[in-house]
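User: Can you fold this complex?
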Amino acid sequence: MNLRYTIPLIAVIVLFLIAFLGAQVPGLQYVFGVVIPYLALITFVLGFAYRVIGWSRSAVPFKIPTTAGQQKSLPWIKHSKFDCPANTWQVVVRMALEILTFRSLFRNTRMKLKEGARISYQLELFLWVGALAFHYAFLVVLIRHLRFFIEPVPFVVQLIENVDSFFRMEIIYPVFKFGLPGVFISGFVLLAAVSYLFLRRLFVHQVKYISIASDYFPLFLIFGIALSGIFMRYVTKVDVTAVKELTMGLVTFQPTIPAGVDAVFFVHIFFVSILLAYFPFSKLMHLGGVFLSPTRNMTTDTRVRRHINPWNYPVPVHTYDEYEDEFREKMVEAGLPVEKMPQPAPAEEPASDSEPEQEEQKE
Amino acid sequence: MNNKTLIIAGLVIFLIIVLFPFWYMRGKAAPAPEPVLTPMAKAAQACVRSTEYMKSEHMQLLDVWRESVVRDGKRIYVNPQGKEFNMSLSNTCLDCHSNKAEFCDRCHDYASVRPYCWSCHIENPKEKT
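Assistant: Here's the predicted assembly.
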């Protein structure tokens, strides 16, 4: 066992027990259903703003875009516009491709030794596929959840629900029934993707070596969120009307705890609250940070435009010319070569030292 | 280019999106709807199964009924109390709950559920046939 993942796992289990047992106590339902979600949202909003404003204050001393293509050069050399963007619009396209399709992950390669000493580089796309599945499933799940926070439910949300429940599976056995309410594929994709991202950290040695507790904790937490959500929808079949009454109460600032809300719901909303509160102080801030990645969001026009370091301040410099002006006589005395001869060649020159230098002086 | 302005603008847009439900609803209360029982349903007192069971499992029950009727041709449902029912949405369920708009649709609309019962079954068989 490895403490880097056992501790986060225990933390998530403890969080589960806190919410699950706490929800059994009638008075604590208000805490888990109203107080903690509000506090978590406030922490999320303020923390997120604090972090991003902090980043906006930091200086950009160097222009450090990474390139993956030909820089804009002579007209007959083909310019790789989106891998080496020369203006803001090309940067916007590159950023959009990065944020929406994770091109950096797409470029992931694995080095292998083949047939003894032959090195080969292979595309390694599983992380890219897993990340795409994870992020887009999460986005769809988030948008779907708007049905709990808006009344009447907007058309866009209904449209996404319809697409998400496109695959209708109705499994009817005496002991196992599944498929109603309609199956939203995104929840299961999210669960599968988060499991893959966890197993990857567990079984790829190099990734395991660099994984720490703060890598595992969000994975376990999101796994818990997805699992509790799926459990609520397909197994315990929580009273959706009561749940929506609760969530609409939160949104409209008229919080209520309706009767008949399942304990699993409190686990779910507690996990989500923990995720929201944890978000600004964790690696999850890459949601905001990806927009500020300096290797991606800078134009690669380093040869065209000079980047001035904002940290630059006037430095008192002492150039060689000034140095020689100051020490010329002493240099000449010491027999050191000088670039400019002293103007009034004094006669007191003692004929001594080295001959060649005196010859130079005469020249 | 003033990066700071851009970043703050992005942050503001993000927070507006995150807080969308709050400013969209603007404190308008949206209480849970109460399904209305018809006099006939009230008189019957009990549904096919208990209220709790029907609340969470009615869709599954209807699906099992459809499977049983369409695939196996079995039309009789016996509930745990030993009472027999004809497995039929139109003739059993909608017989008591003839007010689809006030009974079915209220909660379905509230929870954004669009059951496909009504793509075959007509809403009120008594009125239309």
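Chain A touches chain B through 46 residues (CB under 8 Å). Residues 174 and 180 of chain A are 15 Å apart (CA to CA).
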